[in-house]
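User: My collaborator sent over this chain with a note saying "see what the structure looks like." That's all I know about it. Can you take a look?
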Amino acid sequence: MALTLFDTDEYRPPVWKSYLYQLQQEAPHPRRITCTNELTSLVRRATLKENEQIPKYEKVHNFKVHTFRGPHWCEYCANFMWGLIAQGVRCADCGLNVHKQCSKMVPNDCKPDLKHVKKVYSCDLTTLVKAHITKRPMVVDMCIREIESRGLNSEGLYRVSGFSDLIEDVKMAFDRDGEKADISVNMYEDINIITGALKLYFRDLPIPLITYDAYPKFIESAKIMDPDEQLETLHEALTLLPPAHCETLRYLMAHLKRVTLHEKENLMNAENLGIVFGPTLMRSPELDAMAALNDIRYQRLVVELLIKNEDILF
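Assistant: Without extra context I'll predict from the sequence alone. Here is the result:
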């Protein structure tokens, strides 16, 4: 049986309403929709629109050996966890309890819970965005918005350091209040405090924004002399990043590109920003101090290339 627009109103989920209303306005008379065709299409379009807002990042579980009090069953195989101590492992981010041997078979479907994720700084980036259901870390979005609203013409932006105690205050505000943290001009008049807080966030990441796994490929791209081959290798390196890291890097590079457009006022070009952000976004996986030191010039060049070619690479 076909249903009219008006017949289905009381059964219509809120997410459909804007699409059905639009359809109503376009039709000169009440239009009849069949459940199997147009109504299904509307639902699909609405669902896709909702899903494109927040990407579904894949995340591995953060399992740690755990001693359970009282009887516990594995949430993967449903069998009892035997023993008095260290009977299994628990995910520190979502609280999933499984046998140690079962943990190797659990899919990468960790959904971090805010009761387990208590910090913003020093928290794994993918864990943070999944816990808060955001595309990027709130620190990155909020600091960049604040900087672009009042700091793009500030001389030495990102190069000049803010007062370290106040930067630490911003960090504690984010850890305590999350997205409700107040970083406005009323609280922190010096924009260098906000830029310092943003740089500190990236330095504090347990896994750098440009991850250890992707690091060698990025350094390799910086050593290539041919421009076309260099960009191709850099693009390959970007595909090695976890989606949340790549999205955050894209957003940051677009911002830094806008910073360079105000070079006459802030005196910060892509090369200067590369010097500042190279060691901030990249950390060598090598323990050899001399090898890490030799990589610094290539780290600078990687960031400089990402800024200059932001519109091509992302």
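A starting point for your reply to your collaborator: Confidence is low (pLDDT under 50) at residues 1-52.
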